[in-house]
Amino acid sequence: MTSILIIDDELSMREFLKILLEKEGFKVSVAPDGDSAFELAKENKYDLAISDIRMPGMNGLDLLAKLKALQPSLPVIMMTAFASPEDAVTAMKNGAFDYITKPFNVGEIKKVINAATSKKVLVEDISLSEMFPNIIGKSPEMLKLFDLIRRIAPTPASVLIYGKSGTGKELVAQAIHNHSRVADKPFVPITCSAIPESLLESELFGHVKGSFTGAIADKPGLFQMADGGTAFLDEIGELTPIIQTKLLRVLQEREIMPVGATRTKQVNVRIITATNRNLEEEIMEGRFREDLYYRLAVVPIRMPSLKERKGDVPLLVNHFLQKYSRVLGKEVQDMSSYGMEVLMNYDFPGNVRELENIIERGVALESSNIILPESLILSSHSKGKVQNTPSSETPLFIAASDEEELFQRGMEDIMVDLEKKMIIHALKKVDNSKMKAADLLKISFRSLRYKTKKYEID
User: Fold this and answer.
1) Pairing between strand 27-31 and 159-162?
2) pLDDT tens track for 380-429
3) How far is CA 41 from CA 5, 28, 35, 73, 394, in A?
4) Predicted pLDDT of residue 432
5) What are the backbone dihedrals phi and psi of residue 234, each rounded to the nearest 5 degrees, phi first?
6) At the topology level of CATH, where does 3-122 sit?
C-alpha cells in the first residue's frame, strides 16, 4: 500500500487530506510541524510527502531539504496559501515534485498525487532526453537543461531564456509549456523584432474597432489568444520603453488595455521570454527597465551554444540527415568520416540552426548516399576555417588578382553586387532581423526594406 506523509500546522487541512487520501486507498500519516515530520520520516519509509511551506519552527523548504537528504527519491509536494512564484521556484530547484496553491480543488490535488505516486514518475533511471523528443542532445549541458525544464515547468513562474541565435530558445519555451499544468491550453509565440513598432502594441494587446485607420473590427492580441496558457515573446530586448511599461502591467496586474479601449481586460497567462542580448548591459545603458527584467527573469535559463556541447553534433547530424532526406526525397543516409571530422572541428557561430542549414545544403548537393566534405559549405567567419564556397557565389571582397575582370564589369555593376552581398551578409549575421541588419549597415529600416525588395532578397 502506498504510504503518504502529510505535514501542515492547520488541523483542518491535515484531517481533510487524511480522510480524502484514505478513501483513495492510501496509508496516511500526519504531522503538525517539520520537526515531528522529520522524526517520522527517519523511522518510516514513505512513498510521498505533502508539506505546507509556511509553518512555525522548521518551514516547509527546510523540511524539503532534510527529507531529500534522507531519501533522495522521495517525491515531495509543497503547499501554500500565499501564492509566491519565488517560493515555487525555490521548492522546485530544491527537488520538490510539484507545488500547489491553497485553496485547491479535490480534482487538482488527486491529479498531482497520482502523478507523483505513479511508477512512471518514480522510476529513477528515466531518461531525461526522452522527455523532450523535439530537443536533440545527451551532453551533460543538455541533461542539466532538461532537468531544469522538468523542475520549473509545473510552476507558474516567468522564465527568461537567453542565449545566442540558433540555440533553440523557442524549442525550450515549447517544452516548458508542454510539461506545464496548462499544456492543453494555447502556446502563442511572437517575435518582437519581426513586427513594426507601430503595430506591435496592437499585436500584443489587441485593438478595438475604429481605434485607428484600418481597424475595421475588434482584434484580440497575443495575451488574449494565450489566455489560460503560455505567451512566448522572443527577442524581448527589442521592445520600446512604452511597450516595456505595458508589459510590466500585464505581469503585475494580470490585465491588458487593448488599443482604443476604455476598460482593461483580465488575462491569466504564463509569460516566457527569450533574448540574445545581454539585458543587464541594456539596463545599465538605460534601454531596458530593471523592474521588468526581474519580473521576467524569475527563472533564467542559459542556452549552451553548440560549440559548448560538441558531443551532440553526431546526434544532430543524424537527425537532420533523416529529416532532409525525407523532405528532399533523397537517400542520403550518412556523413563521411572526414566530413564528420570537419564538423567536429568547426565552431558553429550560427549554432544548431547553422548546422541544420549545412546538412540541408549537403543533402541537396550530394549525388551519392553519403555526404562528402565537398558538399559541406561552412562559414568563412569561424576561426581557423576556410569557406568551401560554390564558384557561383562571389566573395564579399574581391582579390586584387581579379582586377581585370572588375574593369570589364564596370564600377556600377560591382557596387550593386557589393551592396547586395553586404545586405545578405548582414541579414545572416543577425538571423534575418531587418531591424538589426539596418543598424549594422547604418541605414534606415525603410531603406533596407526597399533594397531587399529591389534585390529580391528574402
Assistant:
1) unpaired
2) 544 433 344 333 344 444 444 444 554 555 555 667 777 888 888 888 88
3) 8, 13, 10, 13, 72
4) 84
5) -90, 150
6) Rossmann fold (3.40.50)
SS3 for 96? coil
Hey, what's the cell of 458? 528574402
Helix (H) or strand (E) holding 275: strand 270-275
State the Cα–Cα distance between residues 110 and 21, nearest whole angstrom: 9
For CA atoms 83, 88, 89, 94, give the dihedral sign.
positive
C-alpha distances (whole Å) from 163 to each of 78, 224, 253, 304, 358 are 31, 28, 29, 7, 21
Q: Letter for the amino acid at 172?
A: V
**Whether 215 contacts 260, CB under 8 Å:** yes
Other CB atoms within 10 Å distance of the CB of residue 381: 13
The continuous run of DSSP H or E covering 7 comes out as strand 3-7
3-state secondary structure of 231: strand
Asked, as a colleague might, if the bond just before 75 is cis with ω within 30 of 0, I would say no
Q: Which residues partner with 207 through β-bridges?
A: 219, 259
C-alpha cell at 278: 545581454
Q: How far apart are CA 218 and CA 16, in angstroms?
A: 47
Q: Kindly report the CATH class assigned to 400-454.
A: mainly alpha
Task: Please report the sign of the dihedral spanned by the C-alpha atoms of residue 242, residue 247, residue 252, residue 257.
Answer: positive
Third-level CATH fold of 306-375: Helicase, Ruva Protein; domain 3 (1.10.8)
On the question of a common fold for 3-122 and 141-302, the answer reads yes
pLDDT above 90 (res 231)? yes
Q: At what angle do helices 85-93 and 140-152 cross, to 10 degrees?
A: 140
CATH architecture of the domain covering 141-302? 3-Layer(aba) Sandwich (3.40)
Q: What is the pLDDT of residues 278-288, one digit of tens each?
A: 999 999 999 99
How many CA atoms does the CB half-sphere of 288 hold within 13 Å? Answer: 20
Enter the pTM of the model: 0.59
Longest dimension (CA), the chain: 93
Per-residue confidence (pLDDT) for residue 107, from 0 to 100: 83
Classify 25 as helix, strand or coil.
Answer: coil
What length is written for the chain? Answer: 458
- Place 120 in a pLDDT band, splitting at 50, 70 and 90: very low
What is the three-class DSSP state of 127?
A: coil
174/282 Cα distance (integer angstroms):
26
The domain spans of the chain are 3-122, 141-302, 306-375, 400-454
pLDDT at 126: 47
- Please list, in sequence order, all residues whose beta carbon lies within 8 angstroms of the beta carbon of residue 427, skipping any fewer than 6 positions away: 433, 434, 437, 452, 457
Helix axes 411-429, 434-441, angle to 10 degrees: 130
Distance in angstroms (rounded) separating the CA atoms of residues 162 and 334: 33
